[in-house]
Each structure stands twice: as C-alpha cells, then as structure tokens.
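Quick log. Single chain, no ligands specified.
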Amino acid sequence: MRKTWRSVGVVGVLLLGVLPAGAAQAVDDPPVTPPTVGVAPSGTPDVVESTPPPAAETPTPPAVEEPTPTPTPAAAWSITLDQPAASWEDKPTIFTGKISQPITGSYITLWQRVPGAWVLRASTRTTAGGVYKFSFTWPYTGTFAFRTMIGVKDTTALAISAYRTVPIQDRKIVINTPAAWYATLTGASVTGRMTPAEPGKELGLQEYLGSGKWRTLSIAKMDAAGNFRLRVPDDVPSTRTVRVLTRYVNQPAMEYSGLATIVVKAALNPKVYAVSAAMVPNTYRAGCPVKPSSLRLLQLNYWGFDGKVHRGELVLRDAAVAKMITVWTATFTSKFPIRQMVRVDRFGGSDVRSMAADNTSAFNCRRVTGDPYSLSPHSYGWAIDINTVENPYLAANGVWYPSNGLAYRNRSVSRPGMLFASSTATKYLIAQGYFWGARWAKPDYQHFEPK
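-> predicted structure:
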C-alpha cells in the first residue's frame, strides 16, 4: 500500500487540489499538508504558494516519575544463641539466647548437627523479655554444632540462629594400681581420681558378681582435687573384681572406671604396744604384782562366730607376748571362732560381767571369782580365759560362771567355740607350757595358765 502511494506521488499532489473536501487519506502514513491550489477570490490568476512549515517546537522533557513508596515491612524476626561453655558427657550443657521481639511464650527448638542432617533435641518457650534457656546432656565426647530456631521446622521457622560448636569432654575415673594383696582388717581400699573434679560428688564402688550383675560395696565423696578413697570390705579373705562409677546420673551419662582386682588374705597381723596406767584404769591398782610397764597390749585378728575377721586385743605380761602370738597364729589358721576379745577394763574390771559377755581376756588384777581369799593368776598377765560362755567355770563356792553358760556344761555335745583337748588353741597353749583348767576337780573350761 505504502509503495503504491509513493509511485503516484506527483499525480496525487495535483489531484488533491480538486478532491472534494473530506476525501479519505491513507491511514498508514502520517497526514501530508499539500500546497494550496485554487482560484483567488479577486479573480486573479492562480498563484501556487507553499505553506511555511511550522516553527520548530522545543521538545517537552518527559515528566520525572516519583517512585512508588514501598510499604514499610513488619519488624524482621531474629534469634541469637550464646556460646555455651565446654561441657562433659555426663553433665548438662546450658544453651541460652534471645529473640528479637520481647515476647513471652514463643516456641523455641534446639537442634544438633549430625552427619547429613540437623536433629531436633529439645524445645522450650521464651520467658520475659524474649529470653530462653535449654539444659541438654549429650553422653558422647567430641565437638558438636547446635543451633536454635523460632518454630519447629527450618522451612517455616520465623528465624534460625547461627550455629555454635560445643566441645563435649570425656569425664574420666582413673583407679590407682592396687597392691598385690591386702591383709584382713588393714583398711583395703580403692583410690584414684576423677576428672574434672566435682568436690562432694558421690562415687560408688561395685563388685562384679557374674552374669552381668554388680553389687555396691561402698560409697564415698571426692575431695576438691577429685581424689577419692573407697573402702573394700576386708573382714573376709576374697578376690574381687571392682569398678568405680558416678552416682545420681542417668544411665547414658554414667561414668565408669576401668576394672581392678583386689585380693584380701586372712592374716593375724599382730601389733604390740606399751601399756600405761591410763590404759588399764579398772584392772590395775597400786600393789598389783605387775606394773603397767611390764605389760603389753597385743592387737590381733580373730575369726568371729559370724564367719568374719575381727580385731581383738589382749593385755599380757611382756614375756607372754611371743607365746601368745604363736598360739593365736595357729588358732586363727584353724578358724576357731571367738565371740569377742577386749580388755576387761571395758567391763569396769568385773570378771563376772566380762564372762557374761563371752569375752576372751588375759590381764586383770583381782581376786579369784568365787574365792575372795586368793589372788587370781590373771593378776600376773599370764593366764587367759577363752570364750567364757561356751566354756563355763565351776568356782570354789560351787557356782557355775557365767550364768548364761550353763547349757555348755555338757561337754559331750560339740558346739562352735567350745574347747576340747583336740582344739588347736588347747594343743598350742599346752605346747607353750600352759595348764588347762578343765583338768581340775572343779573344771574351768575357759582357763589356761602357765604350769
């Protein structure tokens, strides 16, 4: 269309002058203003005039558009996570932080990084001011990453904190190497140290019973440096496999030491000490044939009627100590039972009370029970009475002592603690030059004295 109009441009110009007013123009091109062609009103010849072009217009610069105001967004949410302190595998790690809005009750979750994922570990809600706090125990050692968020999913959380790494350290209980063996009643114990130290924290000593079962033997608290001492029962010979563990913590966070073997062997373990008057206030007085300086305190172990080892004491003449150690070593080895063995001073010096308590004893400066006219052989520190209830005494006045030992007058029935000619104590005392009172016309089954 546009090409057609241009090819007849000259003709078109000529014809325009004779086209009736209102004739159509091509819509493809901008309108063209033709020169004026026509008859002048005065009848003068036609004059072709060109219409001058309009004066050039100064282009109006486009209006500068003001930017559309952007609505101010609501305040953005954020959450902080403070750097936790290094912790231990059986001690809670404390996580604290704050959200940007001081709102109480916002739901906060704690997440831990594991290989390939973040795992939800705990949840809580904010308190006044938008602060929060978690207490979380992780029972494994290493360095782990944690983060918190407002909400329960990272895709919908209002905010997620930066992550923090926390070293979880290995709590250790180390046992010192025990001795090869311990004698009974010498204070056998397991010692060691716990890291980190928690002064006052309780530890337990357990013994392995087999089949996965353990039994608690003792409990103690560590000192300020983490050192501990846990007693091992040493009143019976034994070989025990033991361990030390923390108490009052959840099973996954419980700490155990390595194993140790504690061997306890039965032994007499005799100890000899000098005697002062203050040690024998009820069994010695001025005028006694032997002064305290000539006496000795012999401490030794003995087997009790309960099948356990106990610690006893005898006050003896100094020259009798070696003989008694020989006798009691053999008696202890034979496990002959003794009810108790303490100084008669514990009974106020009363021989009757001492016998009623089934007490084995030696020195007591006194008159013969049942015979106020004779000085007892015990006044010299040589004589000894053994298991006074199981081995009663018929006094010169015809009375049996003690009264609670009357059932043992029948010597045809052998019961624990009774003395016979075949008893180890009897044989060894006789071998040391002693005479047994059972041979007297009025038998004294408990009594031995030098010939």
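The chain has three domains: 79-169, 172-265, 271-450.
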